[in-house]
Description:
This protein is an alpha/beta fold. 49% of the residues lie in helices and 11% in strands. The protein contains 12 helices and 6 strands. A 6-stranded mixed β-sheet has the order 4-3-5-2-1-6, with helices on both faces.
Amino acid sequence: MRLLKFSLLLLLCWHPLLQAKTSMWQVKKGEDVVLLGGTVHLLPAAEFPLPAEFETAFAQSSVLFLEAPVPEPTDQQAMQAMMQQLQYPAGTGLKQKLSADVYQQLAAYFKKFGTDVEALDSFKPGFVAVQLSLLEMSATGISGEGVDTYFASKAKKQNKPVQFLETLDFQLQLIAGMGEGYESEFIKQNLANTAELGPLMHQSIKAWRLGDLAKIDELLLKDARAEDPKLFQQMFTARNQRWLGQIRQMFGNTDKELVLVGAGHLPGEDGLLVLLQQAGFEVKPL
């Protein structure tokens, strides 16, 4: 997905939530607790083992909530269905959506990695942006399973129930809609940001390990709020609001839920931690 730099509003830089040294949180209502962790979706093998509080939270939980299911690469039917959602209908292609100049810039970028841009011509800008990010991060040593995948596999081995905040179809629709109506500008911005992606992710991973929410906000949120407020609203604000409602529903039962979402969903005035506090929950680091 489009990887932009984001930063915290000055109003929140002093917020007590930002003083914690962990990305794992307890959300309490009376004696009932939901554990909420911010994750990194791509994590080099060198970053394992994970911070100890993540393993503690998993051990304490009876059910794991992740953002959305991801089909196995061997599930050809599911993979084909995914690709269809991310492609244009027959007769339409990326070359028709982009200006000639931006299309040539994109072709030149992929050529560096031995990829012909025409192989991607049937795909929508959101999918192309994902490929840009993955290529650039892989080139700087950022690849491998993320925190979510790690715990999904662990839950499967332990027969721990796994549930999801969103459907895969919903997330695919988000990606498919990225850049719609301003395709050239969207791809041009992504190309301009590629050189920053590797260093940015390395800094973000370091901030995540330290639980430095102010730094995560600065690195991952600030520019997105300013550069593409519509996309930010769709990718962060609206989803956080929906997840708030879902987390509310996790209280009042005998389960001990562990909820894992991307770390960028935690900080900020529209982030989950502040939203939960405003909703009357006690929020503190694990």
